[in-house]
Amino acid sequence: MSYLPYWIVVIATLGAVVVCVTLHYEGLRILSDRLPMPRHHHRRRIIILILCLMLLHVLEIWVFVAAYFFLQGVQGYGAFVGDASMTILDCVYYSATVFTTLGFGDIVPQGPIRFMTGVESVSGLTFITWSASYTFLEMLKTWDHANKK
Fold it and tell me: What is the pTM of this model?
């Protein structure tokens, strides 16, 4: 049994995680630097923040989509059971259910690609809680700014 496909999947997974962590960190940094503190309508700041965070999560899902789509197309790296051919949109659906840890189970990974699925679940949970913590801190700033007037 050759372990090369497993190592390729581990490397691809590590690459996806590094890209997503960097994307998330830089996204939050940009939001911190550029999200204006309005004089009125403080809710607008939080609404913009939430929409930006949702976009950030969608981009992170797409990073894993690219990895799944590439790996499932190469013999030996794994496959998905439940759909005859995984199109790019099927990969988006699968990645979103894994990222959010929803996991319907209608598409099931087989082979080395299962490693990426497990790591994406942990990553998604981490990014979602990171975003929730960041949102809480931004809401505190907004509330403190509103109360200082």
Answer: 0.90
Contact partners, residue 114, CB within 8 Å, separation at least 6: 78
* Beta strand pairing call for 79-81 and 108-110: antiparallel
Read off the pLDDT of residues 54-111 as tens digits, 9 standing for 90 and up.
999 999 999 999 999 999 988 889 989 986 678 999 999 999 999 999 988 899 999 9
Kindly report the number of other CB atoms within 10 A of residue 99's CB atom: 24
Q: What is the largest CA-CA distance in the chain?
A: 69
Contact call for residues 77 and 115 (beta carbons, < 8 A):
no
CA 96 to CA 140: how far, in whole Å? Answer: 30
Dihedral angle sign, alpha carbons of residues 51, 104, 60, 85: negative
Q: Which residues lie closer than 8 Å to 130 by C-beta, 6 or more apart? A: 24, 28
* CA–CA dist 111, 37 (Å, integer): 49
Contact (Cβ atoms closer than 8 angstroms) between residue 120 and residue 35: no
